Input
Amino acid sequence: KHPHLNPALATDTTNIRYDVRKAPPHGILLSTYQQVALQPALAQPTYDIRIISKAFPWTVDIRAPAGSVITCSAIFEGLYAMLQEPIVDSEWGIVVNDKSKRETIEKAAKARHEKEKDVRLKRIDWLGETTAFKGLERDEEFEKKRLLPGSQGCKETWVIKFGKP
Output
C-alpha cells in the first residue's frame, strides 16, 4: 500500500508493538528497536516529515539533523516527545464541553498519575486507552482538511493510527 515507507512504519506491514506512553527504547522490544531505529523512514532520502492524526489535534513536524535523513527512531522519538508535553489551557478549552473526550483524558491521566509524580494533564492522556502505535498511512483528503489555512504543507505528510495495546 505504501511501498516507499519503511515496512516497520506502515499500517499494512508493521509488526512493531509500541505503547506510545513509554519512550521508544522502553516501549518497543529492545532488539526490535535496535534493528529498525537507524533505518531510513522512507526509501528516498527525506529531510522533513509531518505526522497528523484523527486521534489528536497536533501536528508533529520532524526535521532530520544536517547530513542525515529521517529515521524510524526520529519518527518514534518525535511522536513520544510531542505526547509528553502538557495540555495547555487552549487545548483544554477544545474538550471542556465534550464530556466523553474530557472523561477519556481525565481517566487516562488518573491512571498515569498512579505511576508517575507529574500530575499535570499531558497530551498522551488525549489518547485514552488507544496508545498502541498501529502505523502510518496516507489520507490526502484528511491531510487537506487538517492543513491550517495559510500555512505551508509538507510533501511527506502521514496519518498515524492508534489502537488499544
